[in-house]
Design brief:
alpha+beta; Jelly Rolls; Arc Repressor Mutant, subunit A; 2 domains; seven-stranded antiparallel β-sheet; 9 helices
Length: 232
């Protein structure tokens, strides 16, 4: 169970791209029943098959969406950090959650938005509905990119392509990217073990290509990583 349950403001809801197109009075209506929930690291948010009565926005931390394999292993479907929403499709169509969700290893603070109220608002305003559908289409394109990355056979290539698509800060060939999730969750997202991820990063550090700085990675030689990402 979440540690805390507190009100959510319309301003906080506006920070999510999916909800940003909604008019102020719509956001205020959503906020009237929305709650901010705090989850400890790896705590379950919802389970597959449970009724999809709400969608969630990540205010801080991260959330991992996963399935359980026949042998009990966790198969990561997607993970997402602050500023993103999850379970929209379940609210729109499925009626129940198709996957499990848990907080990332660092925990998560989530905005829980009542699904029925969200759908009722969109039914009253076709323009808002179109904006939300456009946001969902953009999310679909991102997931297609993720599938493309996972199809790459080499772990280093998958990691390089993922990092080069993150927002970066820096100049003169050296950039820093902030990891959206903990390294353990990143490894699962990229279909590799944490040990493999550590080996790749160690090799890059020895080659003076990249170095890990807490939850950031400094790309010391972006050109070398671009070459790795482009290898066929």
């Amino acid at each position: 169970m979440p540690v805390k349950s507190l009100p959510v403001s319309a301003m906080e809801l506006r920070s999510f791209p999916l909800l940003k197109p909604l008019r102020e009075e719509m956001l205020t209506e959503l906020a009237s029943t929305a709650r901010a929930l705090e989850f400890a690291g790896n705590e379950v948010v919802f389970r597959a098959g449970e009724p999809a009565a709400a969608l969630y926005g990540v205010l801080s931390g991260s959330v991992v969406l996963y399935r359980s394999s026949a042998d009990g292993r966790e198969q990561v479907v997607h993970d997402t950090g602050a500023g993103r929403t999850i379970a929209e499709a379940a609210v729109f169509q499925y009626g129940s959650f198709p996957v499990h969700a848990r907080a990332g290893t660092r925990g998560a603070r989530l905005a829980q938005v009542e699904g029925a109220r969200f759908l009722a608002i969109l039914d009253r305003d076709p323009a808002a509905m179109h904006s939300v559908l456009a946001a969902l289409c953009r999310r679909l394109h991102e997931l297609v990119d993720r599938v493309e990355i996972l199809s790459l056979p080499d772990a280093g290539q998958r990691l390089a392509r993922f990092l080069l698509r993150l927002p970066a800060e820096g100049r003169a060939g050296s950039f820093r990217v902030r990891l959206p999730v903990a390294k353990k969750d990143l490894a699962a997202q990229l279909a590799m073990t944490p040990e493999t991820l550590s080996r790749v990063l160690k090799r890059w550090r020895e080659q003076a290509w990249a170095v890990v700085l807490d939850d950031e990675i400094e790309l010391l030689d972006a050109a070398a990583l671009e070459q790795i990402a482009a290898e066929s």
